[in-house]
Write a structure and sequence with these properties.
By secondary structure, this protein is of the alpha+beta class. About 30% of the residues lie in helices and about 40% in strands. The chain has 2 domains: about 70 residues, 2-Layer Sandwich (Double Stranded RNA Binding Domain), CATH 3.30.160.20; about 80 residues, Ribosomal Protein S5, domain 2, CATH 3.30.230.
């Protein structure tokens, strides 16, 4: 179950990236539970992800969406792309995000693509290394996006004009 787009009424982009089924063996047989990884964004620079677990699929997706909405971050977007090159690592995953010229599109795998589309990035080049686990790739992508700074942010921090 990858890349299910669920546009909600408030204009946000919600995408279910992964649904995992877990089985616990009990006296009467197997008891299944489900975990969902969801990415939510407004398409204008705000994006978040959530991970929800429940005994059925719909409640796990709802829990993940609720967590994603709570933990949204604002990222800078300049002319439909990111301001500069960044590298994000989380656990075994490593993601490189590169700004791209207009018309390039989103060159990325499914997990990183979902985050970029939800954030509203139109043109970007990405490469993921080592792990291909969607949950770890999403977290590495978020670590990379949190490092982004615009030219104005750097000027304010340094106290000089570039």
């Amino acid at each position: 179950m990858a890349n299910i787009i669920e546009p909600s009424g408030d204009g946000s982009i919600e995408r279910v990236l992964k649904i995992k089924r877990c089985a616990a063996v009990v006296k009467g047989g197997r008891r299944f539970s489900f975990a969902a990884l969801v990415v939510v964004g407004d398409g204008r620079g705000k994006v978040g992800f959530g991970y929800g677990k429940a005994n059925e699929v719909p409640p796990s997706v709802q829990k993940a969406q609720k967590q994603a909405n709570r933990e949204m971050i604002q990222i800078p977007i300049v002319d439909g792309t990111i301001p500069h090159r960044v590298i994000g690592t989380y656990g075994a995953a490593k993601v490189i995000l590169l700004p791209a010229s207009p018309g390039t599109g989103i060159i990325a795998g499914p997990a990183v693509r979902a985050v970029c589309e939800a954030a509203g990035i139109k043109d970007i080049l990405t490469k993921s290394f080592r792990s291909n686990n969607p949950s770890v790739l999403v977290k590495a992508t978020f670590k990379a996006l949190q490092q982004l700074r615009t030219r104005q942010d750097i000027e304010l921090l340094r106290g000089v004009s570039l």
